[in-house]
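Weekly sync notes, structure subgroup
Attendees: PM, AL, DS (notes)

Item 1: joint prediction request from the bench team. They want all two components modeled as one assembly rather than separately. Inputs as received:
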Amino acid sequence: MKEIKIGLIGFGTIGTGVAKLLQANAGLIADKVGAMVTLKKIADLDVTTDRGIELPPGTLTSNVADVLDDPEISVVIELIGGYEPAKSFVLRAINNGKHVVTANKALLALHGEEIYPAAAAKGVQVLFEAAVGGGIPVISAILGNMAANNFTTVLGILNGTCNYILTRMTQEGADFGDVLKTAQELGYAEADPTFDIEGVDTAHKLALLVSLCFGTKVDFNAIHTEGISSISSADIGFARDFGYKIKLLAIGKRTGDTVEARVHPTMIPVNYPLADVDGVFNAIRFTGDFIGPVMFYGRGAGMDPTASAVVGDVIEIARNIIAGVSRRCAPLGYRDEAVTTLALKPMGEIEGKYYLRFSAVDKPGVLAKISGALGKYDISIESMIQKGRSAGESVPIVIMTHEAREKDIRAALEEIDTFELISEKSRFIRIEDNLE
Amino acid sequence: MKEIKIGLIGFGTIGTGVAKLLQANAGLIADKVGAMVTLKKIADLDVTTDRGIELPPGTLTSNVADVLDDPEISVVIELIGGYEPAKSFVLRAINNGKHVVTANKALLALHGEEIYPAAAAKGVQVLFEAAVGGGIPVISAILGNMAANNFTTVLGILNGTCNYILTRMTQEGADFGDVLKTAQELGYAEADPTFDIEGVDTAHKLALLVSLCFGTKVDFNAIHTEGISSISSADIGFARDFGYKIKLLAIGKRTGDTVEARVHPTMIPVNYPLADVDGVFNAIRFTGDFIGPVMFYGRGAGMDPTASAVVGDVIEIARNIIAGVSRRCAPLGYRDEAVTTLALKPMGEIEGKYYLRFSAVDKPGVLAKISGALGKYDISIESMIQKGRSAGESVPIVIMTHEAREKDIRAALEEIDTFELISEKSRFIRIEDNLE
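Output from the run, pasted for the record:
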């Protein structure tokens, strides 16, 4: 039986999972590829820590060149994350004619435009299933069997840390800060959780999904990115009263040549399947012009699921190698020259329903003033709750709007916040309840 | 740009969808394949009905040889369904060196063992994503990115007709017969609904999933197949009381070299994501040794979603052709010689929890007699409901058991049904509430 030799850069949690999977299921993989897939070299600066796996002597090296420049290695797996030196390593692997498998969403979201043409020039594959949704085989599905569709929406719960926090806030009525602290103690959140909590990780993943689904380049910095740190248990409670749950959603939409790409806390109806995606699970939902709505659900992170996605990509490339093909599909699924650059819709132009929460002094006439200001900006009210009356003191007033334009919402809230009766900055949360 | 010519056999609903998709998204498909994919010929006995689509003159033919024997056609799509003449057409296409795409689960479940080696001998691909779950790209995922996993379970809601009926029974408390009648009027059920209602269609799909997930041949006739016609609104109501929903599930499990493959109404906890799959939607859930649990959800039937899956397979093959490869992957994903023949576990040996419903005359001591008989067969009771007391008349007694063996359940019920106090044949429904 033939042998395909691969190299791994980065022997952390995911790298260890990949090495374990390649050992544990070597026979199965050989049966599916028609060749032995062997991990020849692993490069990591730390060559001493015991990862709980036995490797043939000489496998582990601190010299990345042992992977990148070994002519026997045909596939390089990059799992160190971040921009540099990951980018240099990936480009060097490509220039040496090696296929690349990576889980590095940050790198691809920001530097894909440099990496993809380099891979095209060398005729090698760059695959990155593990970059979105952990083990969930969602990128392969866009590139593969769903490829005949024009997609109109792609939505997802893509960050396990945020979803874990929002789930516990929803189930226990707990506050953000308290749940974050427990999440950090349990290892579900990093010591510095900014990338997760503020939506940056989700935005990296959305950039990839939008590029793949709509065949367009995306300016990562133009993606509206809002995290969950300002969500209060009050908002979650009111959402429930109106039949909604709050999730951090990555939202991509295409209408003609206009694309929306945004990450923000979103209210979705409790009876949406997405609303039941709890804890560290991820889900991604597409609408295509022929397939209709389709959803994928599974573990969005962790050593084993992510290793499944990485090795799945290796198997794809190994089958090509055995079939004598170098490159069967471009990284975004489209011929490189067919990838366009569509404009992102400015957030002010977004239309939808909104949840508005005001803190107002409980005096006659306050509601008339608020609804008057909303009306001035063409915002009409679908329903309203005022909970806990307390004459002369501040009480929350919650309003659900009909379809409105975001720039009107912002202008109305700015005006309302100047009213003397308003005691706190007013808040809004976008609602997504009209999915085809 | 190169051109890849394909032929279609069967111009019914799905065939029309395929022709429409290939026309509507021709540019998109060309961008993804790097070649024009052209539908050169369509064979159907009915060449007169208006399908609402304009075809180039000479495309439609009543002579199947115009598709099967045209040397310019490299991919044949078979959409006539059934065993014959579908099987002869598929084998003739293969023998003429053409790749085959089919949605015909009945054909593959029963005659795959004849078709797959023929395709291997000719070095062509046989793809069948549309055979399971309509547009949901589940077979591609097993063959593709999830390939590194040893699967332990595959479960699915695979028949839209049954799921529509059970959903309406659950939501409205309606009876099976009434809902079936409406379903037939609405076109959700066939005039002769036996194949759907009695679980045969689901069993065909399960046979394919089990073969793909566990790499084994399956004797279709050995699959335990039970439909939904005996489910009463009383059972659905009791299920709700205990926190369950009733779904027609296809269940495949592998433990070592033993495989379970069975189709039957199943109670699942209401908080399982599968329990929220309602109406004509389908869902398939896997557990793999590395990926963990993963679920796919979408439209399981219909013209457009099924066309998406068929054309997705065509794109896969077209990319191979452009790359100069004939066959990149065997139909079951494993090298043909690696496919095994594992034994199916006899139903009597299945272990699980059970819902038992007795009709018993409401007299002191009846429960003691029933629980005594259960105890004799080593069946212990988790909980019990006796609703609506009516001294001396027949009332339902419902018992949920702990883990028990099916042969013991059957023996106990047979004994209990001989009691004078039992007025109707006792019923049981299997429970699935212990999914990893």
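Discussion: The longest strand of chain A covers residues 244-255.
Action: AL to compare against the crosslinking data before next sync.
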